[in-house]
Amino acid sequence: MNAFNKKQSTSASAVADSMTIGQLAKRFGLSRSTLLYYDSIGLLKPSARSRANYRRYTTEDAGRLEMICMYRQIGLSMVSIGEILNSPKSSARDILEKRLFALAKEISRLREQQHMIIRMLGDRSLRKRIPVLDKEGWIALLKACGLDDAAMNKWHQEFEKYSPLLHQEFLEGLGIPGVEIDLIRKWSQV
After folding, report:
1. Where are the domains of the chain?
2. Sign, Cα dihedral of 42, 47, 53, 55
């Protein structure tokens, strides 16, 4: 068998072991047009074409699509996904860290919106139905556990020593205004 026939035979067997665009789309619960879009932007190119020039996808392509779906699920843009899949691992870490910090900021903004809506409605009973803990609720919980003001101050000091950023995020999550958070963190650093 010459090199040309061997290559043709390998290509033919690769096509036989591969999936059509419809099969791949169904496997991942995506539309055919989504896969065509991924192809058009270079995110997921088919590994082979059939004799009739239909796209054929290998198990490696399916693995790449699985990664694409995972990255989409955590909210990454197509550009970021392309960078991760086509770059060294250090690039992936940077992109994922940026996404993690963006999510933390978004969660903080959403918590702040929850607190604002509850205050606007003036209905404190909403706190029992919506999983939102505010400053007053947190203080009541700590007092119910037997902590006095000195013990709560110590708690803040230890939290600030343990993780200043986490302490900041926690206080923001309670809906405490920024000026008050700055004061709490300042006396916590003593």
Report:
1. 10-74, 107-188
2. negative
Q: Can you count the helices (H) and strands (E) in the chain?
A: 11, 3
Longest dimension (CA), the chain: 87
Q: What is the dihedral of CA 86, 90, 93, 94, to 10 degrees?
A: -90
Which structure tokens are listed for 159?
């939290």
Other Cβ atoms within 10 Å of 159 Cβ, number: 18
DSSP string, 9-73: HHHHHHHHTSEEHHHHHHHHT--HHHHHHHHHTTSS--SEE-TT--EEE-HHHHHHHHHHHHHHH
What 3-state DSSP class applies to 49? strand
Both tokens of 185, joined, read 């963190």
Structure tokens at 162: 């343990």
Q: What is the pLDDT of residues 61-107, one digit of tens each?
A: 999 999 999 999 999 999 999 999 988 777 888 999 999 989 988 88
Pick the CATH number of 10-74 from 3.40.50.360, 1.10.1660.10, 3.40.50.1240, 3.40.50.720: 1.10.1660.10
Sheet holding 55-57: strands in order across?
19-20, 55-57, 48-49
